[in-house]
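Shipment paperwork, digital attachment
Item: protein structure file
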Amino acid sequence: MMSLTCKTGIKAVIYLASKRDSGEKSGTKEIADFIAASEHTVGKVLQVLVKKNLIKSTKGPSGGFYISGTQYKKPIIRIIEAIDGPEIFKECGLGLKKCSSVYPCPIHDDFKDIRDRFESMCRKKTLDDLCGPMNIGLTYLTI
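Attachment content:
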């Protein structure tokens, strides 16, 4: 389903969202260390997300990446579409190029149901929904 890069992007943005109330900005290294990801990958992903206006950044000694109030309320599907593209929700579970209801793969019906429910969840869940439980210790980005 989602690429490792996309999962890294989601974790990075959730981390940024968790710091929104304090007004803190975070650097690439800090984010990469916290989510146990490659600093190079995190840097590339964050630049894509800045260009898509899903996060913000400032340069200079007090610079870094951060989330605005309106970005905080965006659904996570925006992150997935920015990194992996919207076609991720149309892909075959076995990776076949021509899987469809007319020519289904062996797991087509079951996978389509899971994929559709996952897409629906991503359209509904906002960063606020995901980082709220994390901020009070109910969920975690790393263990």
